[in-house]
Automatic annotation (TrEMBL):
It is a multi-pass membrane protein. Residues 514-537 are annotated as: Disordered. GO terms for molecular function: transmembrane transporter activity. It comes from Halodesulfurarchaeum formicicum. Keywords: Cell membrane, Membrane, Transmembrane, Transmembrane helix, Transport. GO terms for cellular component: plasma membrane. This is BCCT transporter. It is found in: Cell membrane. The chain crosses the membrane at residues 20-41, 56-74, 95-117, 150-173, 194-217, 237-257, 269-300, 320-342, 354-377, 409-438, 450-469, 475-498. Residues 523-537 have a biased composition (Low complexity). InterPro entries: BCCT_transptr (IPR000060). The keyword Iron-sulfur does not apply. Its main location: membrane.
Amino acid sequence: MKLMEIFGLEGAEFNEKMLFFLTAVGLAVLGAIGILSPQWFNDMMMAGYDFVLHNFGWWFMVLGFALLAFSVFMTFSKYGKIRIGGQDAEPEFGLFGWIAMVFTVGYSGSIIIWGVGEPASIMAAPPPEPWPVSGALESMSLSFMFIHEIFPGLAMWYPPFALAFALTIYNRNVDRFKISSMLKPLLGDGDHKYLYWVVDLASLIAIVGGIAATMGFSAQTFDALISDVFNMPGSSLTYILFGLIGLVFLGDVWLGLHKGIQNAARATVILAMISAGFLLVVGPTLSAINIGLDATGIWINNMFRLSFFTDPTAAGDWGHYWTSFWWAWWAAWGIFVGSFVARVSKGRTLRETFVSLVAIPGVFLWIQHSIIGGWVLSPGYVEPVTEAVSSGGIPAAIAEAVNLTPYGLVLAVLFVLVITGYVITSLDSTVFILSSITLGTENPNARNRAWWGVLLAFVGVMTIELPLFSAMQAFPVILAFPFTVFLVAIAFSSYVAARDYFRANVLEDGEEHSSFITRKSEPQPAQKQSQPAPDDD
């Protein structure tokens, strides 16, 4: 077998091979430095993190609000009824499988990790007084969690990418499944190959930043749970756990999108529901419900105040270290989540896709965060958990909360299983999109996907060695920041694509005619494919 075939790059163009090898070498070097010099790597990442948030935190806030307005306009205007793939396109996945994939790829183990970590961290280090809103500190800390992971957060960053990919790849018949293809409605078919290559490279780097943070958060949480709850060697068993995750991931790669990723997503959603229900029963039930409801009132009444809180007259950048960090992480995840959601949403309208990304997950996230946040903020839990997050970081706080809870060992097992499920589904979908962007095809071969998975797992293992949990926060902020300059252009380009498509295809009564659309019964346009072997997917 030739070298390019080993990496799944046979038939790829030179610029596509360069995309793969440059990013792969960068990942390998990043992982090696983190393993060999973790303290130096930690210090460098934190310095970059501080620089970006201090000087450009405002940019993430402004951009997030602009993308929110854009997403709402595109969804609830006349363009919302455009069907991805054309009027005759039929959904490829059933309702539960579709929503499960959208949810698990989009929301990861942060539901547990940051569901504990953010409220506890805000309790330990609240915003400078006067606080942005009145009320109990416990409720305000949880309301910030609602802002960052429910709304407006999830409506800002995922829908623009999903809409742009859907409109350019499946309704405009662009022949390359790449991030740069989203600019073609704006730039036309002229010779912009160098600009397109730079956009694709920046997107790959940003995606790596987003998934690296998630892998790192998960790895250190596994370590803390195994060490502090099960009283076993945490680092060693975390390495073994990541090895098992890698084996399951490789199995998913060869099973493909329908049998592999979809089934892993279904299992993860079911496990998440079981763990939330179990926690509600064995935890401080009444207190959790009351804190969740009180925080909901603060969240709804003060949504924009909390979203734009910077406290410019106070020392430090408290608001940017929370909100701008979250928006940077969303931006990094939005690239591959949006493109993956567009891939699995063919046959659905833009409005249905928005609902699957925002409304349904929003309700589920609100329930989960109310249970988890209410749990760690309840009397008897909040003081020791806050002390743990101050002294040992978020993983230590999670372990402390589990140890305080009746049937804590059972809860810890459920948490490990849920976070493992999220890691697997996130890894599955990430490498699927990384490989698609590299090869320019919506059906990348299994060998190239497997290599991406190995590289990302290597980065995840490296993060176990980093001395501070907070170092993981630097990955999406630093690596996604350069890509944000393209986001405005991508959003405007998708509007141009929707406008042109609507004028050419959608009649006043909502019906579509056959020009300029892809119909299921018609031959598909020629699209560059890296053809997999029969057993690859």
